[in-house]
Amino acid sequence: MKELKDYIRNIENFPKEGIIFRDITSVLEDAKGLQLAMNTMMDKLKDVEFDVIVAPESRGFIFGVPIAYQLKKAFIPIRKKGKLPCETIEQSYTLEYGEAILEMHKNAPIQGKKVVIVDDLIGTGGTLEAIVKLVERLGGEIVQICCLIELPELEGRKKLKGYDVRSCISFLGK
Questions:
Q1: CA-CA distances (angstroms) from residue 57 to 34, 46, 104, 112?
Q2: Of 85, 134, 167, 171, which sits most exposed with the smallest number of CB within 10 A?
């Protein structure tokens, strides 16, 4: 039986020289791989009391929406600047290979709610740190950050110190 890690495809030198991209499309393209990924992520949440899932586009949506649906929780999208139709708050952040701005609706119903952040990957932690700041500015309480993949050598957990960060699989180096 294949393990979850076996479904991840490694693409060298993408999106730029020296980076190994951990491609999840190979997980999504295989029914057993997708079920294993979803079940493993939901297992990380089985003892967590929460109200809402927050996830960034696009790969966070892939996992966050079906988990929210399965667990009967609300889902709040985090998007790149200029993609949400209502008034937003924004947070800039640094990626492993660039900079960007994330936004969420200013009226997102998270004040006083227990929030789980779902994403496909924790690398440098920049994206997740930005999401934490957005959620907390609107009064949400982060109770867990759940990611499919972690790249520990990029030390993303340092930016998320004090939060319950759980990943399903880790890749060290190649």
A1: 18, 24, 11, 24
A2: 85
